[in-house]
Amino acid sequence: MSFVVAVDSGGTFTDCVVVDDEGRLVWAKSPSTPPRFEEGVIAAVGEAAGRLGLSPADLLADTRLFAHGTTVATNILITRTGARTALLTTRGHEDAIIIGRTVQKVAGLSEGEIIDVARLSKADPLVPRSSIYGVDERVDSGGSVVAPLKLERLERLAARLREEGVEAIAISFLWSFLNPDHERRLRDWLGGNGDGRANWFVTASSDLAPVIREYERTATTVLSGYLKRMGDRLRDAGHAGAISVMHSAGGVSSLDEARDRGVTLLSSGPAGGMLGARALARRLGLDPAIATDVGGTSFDVGTIVDGEPGYAEAPVFAKYPVTVPIIDVTSIGAGGGSIAWIEPESGVLKVGPRSAGAAPGPACYGAGGTEPTVTDANLVLGGIDPDH
């Protein structure tokens, strides 16, 4: 008997589905474990294995494919809990991502939010200004080198990055989509052996988003340990088969590719849900259809029209544009763990976007949560069995 194991890791819960050779399904759920989400993945697999009467090691040893979707990347972006990152750009253009473009204050907002002009603000910086460094180099709009990159002059900068405890480095030079040579030479030099450089995770904009406009390209690069740790845990637990990771456009990639292109994971969980909704709508003969997913942190909505989900070619995450196409899913902070609060200025009851998450969770979980959530309200109103 062999199995396919699929796991979706969310901000509050981690879900596992196991399919055997005969198409039989077993599913299980486990609390997510931020910031080490891989622990929740292993726990969910263990729950599913128990329902099959197997040990986790036996289940994983007979698993030919382990498929993974996640909203961890989105949660990291929202909470700013990712790796300590530095941005290297062409000298003189260090403030491009801070200044943004004219539309940054309203990027991704609804009409109602845009009308409230007094509350419009720029996005919180992905990288603090103190961690953005200019590099002497320049390529012109024709792709010709104006100022060559001299790696030997960057030893002092590399030493400073090590002293500041930088874990990840994003490189975004002007016009690099026309001539990526400078970015790729610096990427290889920083990621080379010696002086602890091999410990850095380095990404270049010309590898991720080779398109015009440095602001969008830089934002995409900065947004790109979790997947490596999960892969290591699965191998240690006995899984020797393939590991595929869902990406936000609806396809899958290998674990190594997903690690190198983290920005493609920003909406991978909801993308998987939309593909499931498409398959169900086709079986039921429904078109158009609206699909919703109520999670612990968010309420996601997407549409199926003419048998296919919609796509966003230039999605916005936390007011930052990303030049990677994704299945179009709209998310609002109205999940089961979304916290109810009173707006001080108006006295109006609000819900979300802040969530109780996996820890401590809603107050009714008895795990230390004290603020009222949607789940608590559903319990009080009789929508949830208090014994379960």
Structure write-up:
The structure is a single chain. Strand 21 (338-342) and strand 22 (349-355) form a beta hairpin. 29% of the residues lie in helices and 26% in strands. With 388 residues, the chain is an alpha/beta fold. A 6-stranded mixed beta sheet has the order 3-2-1-4-11-12. It has a 4-stranded parallel beta sheet with strand order 6-5-9-10, with helices on both faces. Strands 13, 14, 15 and 20 form a 4-stranded antiparallel beta sheet that branches. Mean pLDDT is 83; it is low at 219-224. It has 13 helices and 22 strands. The two termini are 33 Å apart. Helix 1 (37-51) packs parallel to helix 10.
Entry summary:
The protein is of the alpha/beta class and 388 residues long. It has helices spanning 37-51, 56-61, 72-79, 96-99, 111-115, 155-163, 181-190, 205-208, 214-223, 226-236, 255-260, 268-284, 374-380, and strands at residues 3-9, 13-20, 25-31, 63-70, 85-90, 132-135, 138-139, 145-147, 168-172, 201-204, 242-246, 252-254, 289-294, 299-305, 308-309, 311-312, 316-317, 320-321, 326-327, 330-332, 338-342, 349-355. The two termini are 33 Å apart.
